[in-house]
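notes to self, project folder thing:

trying the whole complex as one job this time. last attempt i did each chain seperately and stitching them together was a nightmare. two parts in total, labels are on each line so i dont mix them up again. if this works i'll redo the older ones the same way
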Amino acid sequence: MFKRRLRVITAVALAISSISISAMADEVNVYSARKEALIKPILDQFSEQSGIKVNLITGKADALISRMKTEGKFSPADVLVTTDVGRLHRAKSQGLLQPISSDVLEASISANLRDGNGEWFALTKRARPIMYVPERVNASELSSVDELADEKWKGRVCIRSSSNIYNQSMVASLIEQQGSRKTQAWLNNFVKSFARPPKGGDRDQIKAAVAGVCDIAIANSYYLAGMLVSNDESEREVAKKVKVFWPSQDGRGAHVNISGAGVAKHAPNADAAKKLIEFMVTKQAQEWYAKHNQEYPVIDGVDWSPELLGFGEFKGENVRLQRLGELNADAVKLMDKAGWR
Amino acid sequence: MLPMLVVFYSWTNPQVEAWKHLTETVLSDYVIHSLILAAGVGIGVSAIGTGSAWLISQFDFYGRKTLQWLLVLPMAVPAYIIAYTYTGMLDFAGPVQSAIRESFDLSYGDYWFPEVRSLPGAIVMMSLVLYPYVYMLALNAFREQSQSLYESSKTLGISGRRYFFRVALPLARPAIVTGASLAMMESLADYGTVQYFGVNTFTTGIFRTWFGMGNQQAAAQLASLLCTFVFVLILLERFSRHKRRYFNTGTQQRVVQRRAMSPKFQWIAAVLCFLPFLFGFVAPSLQLLYWSISHWQQNFDDQFLTLAFNSFMLAAIAALVVTFIAVFVSYAKRLVVRKDVQIATQLASMGYAIPGAVVAVGAMLPLIWFDTQFDSFMQNLFGISTGLLLSGSLFALVFAYSIRFLVVAVQNTDDGLSRIKPSMDASARTMGLSPKQVGIRIHLPLLRGSLLSAFILVFVDVLKELPATLIMRPFNFNTLAVRAHELASDERLVDAALPAMAIVIVGLLPIYLLTKKMDES
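result (full assembly):
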């Protein structure tokens, strides 16, 4: 019995280990921190048009970066896709990406949205506005995120945990623009504005605001847009009850992060990888993102979804995004000190 | 054991500044919350698991036969899924509280309602899905206590409640403690639930330090602290047992005769046993069902069957391999009574309390080392570059599961072997059986129950496993857990319901078949 089982197991082990990935022509291997549902359709379009087969694994960005690092020079990864700039910077600083020079990319993507060395490029923009419940808050009371630390807003703001990368990037961006000391002082007061200890995701903050836990939620715009077109009717109803306010429009602008991609240092199919990234900034791909993922395109002349149009145009922060990656650890420490859970 | 070494090796590069920051700000939170969580889950699962196992094994009441296997089912529900469903039902914005507000015309803050997303909430959620660990082991243990034990206790005037506390419970204690410690370790390794509930524990700390601060060293050091903590827990448990080992001594074993109950008590017993099943399985499943039915067409495609098949096969293969290894480990412990072997097996089992993502990174290192060596060997000999042969294949994944879930299987096989008296081997040998024959003809039939429960537990764990699967799987390979997680973490609970439901269903099949089989044996 044991012997037979051993034989079966050996056979199975051999069989599965033989399904290893070989680098064939006309393939490109993508490590994506973007979820499958949010990238596969556009990759399929790419395959259809270029004849290049796309192999995909998805996962948490840091885990994918660790995997690339341990795989070293044998890594099959060609393209790394992440949903925030901090991780792209981290991959770059660990020497996992290679510089790419591409006229298409340089012409389409403005300079602050790509790495100076050409190691990563933004694919979409994601904004983090203030959302308010018009029944309880008048838009004229709002101006910037900075003022949400005022006494007036004590116990009225919902925002998720500081473990979340969007909050970390937002604070890193403040540090870059205002310096550590000022940011710390703001954080110390801002946490007093929390209506409850942070919990849940961005959609939960919006729901809590509508349910009356708080009057203001801070969340990424595509979550609200996603709720507006949700399969769940109650979610659509909730989403209709909040409005978007774009902060600091006379000043530095609303906080913006990106999703982006870079070509791996040891990419076996570097040419195909470059083609893929170039495809991602074509009008076709950008429009798909603007309409299906509700994210802002990085190129001009692309139609937005009705939901994004409803939120209106806005001015975004003009920060060199790679600084957000560099300052991420500092941001976490300041939030720890302020007691932002 | 390698991931453990990797984790502890991190101390060669102490991160003074990071630690200073951690101790000044958040470390005490991590420690206290983790302790409360583990203790709470330990108490919760022991109470539910032992209580239900006792009723099922000792008494006859309405629906006992069905309840006996229904009680195992909550195990198929991943902790983070039950957390999502209860939040959906009981949160401010959920149907229950909305109904209260509407019918009494109240608004937020006017009334008290337990907060689901809190530390107590996390304890309840995890206890509800983890108690089957205790239940299965305790059921086995109670069943194997012989009838003569009960009768002789009775003649000594010990019966009823006293029999339970003074005789049956102490005898079943190793099994209960084993189950509870598995559940506690799982609660310590949990990330999905605590993160969603905003409870800061060691795991959230590890990920925060690793991802947020980009300090992998300090994160590994935190993980090692967690391991040490678990190790102390295990030692304490060992110590408290005073090296007692229990073997069945009755030569003529008689199966426990279930006692009859009055109709009133039958109902009470049936309801009591139904409650864990209701809250741990029925309620979350109904919520999932409700979510998935309304939009199943959008989420059900041809891919979906592939997903289910992948998940099932992967879990089955991994469970087979892990159970097989576990048998070896248990025999090594039984046959080689040496300190170093005992310690090595003990260390290997701590892997269960480490978050899957940390295990995955630890498991990748040796595989890639092997691949690199093999590549240069083949290069020199034949001029062929083999590249990454093992890592990035399903083999790597099964390897990682073996590390993470070995302890689950070993606990079961250990427990099974510990109930086979060594003198039995001796007498079998004197009767002319070879060691191999002893294994096949004596041990195997006696171990069947333990092997089955080891297999189910690992199967279900692999089915639910997320972080290691996410990071180590080959290209274009998806499982149900991955799909459910991706949608849920994108806060699309309604769309995540169908794959989550499928995990539960796929998990049910082996649980049902195997508990039936266990019952027959």
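what i see at first glance: The two ends of chain B are 35 Å apart (CA to CA).
need to look closer tmrw
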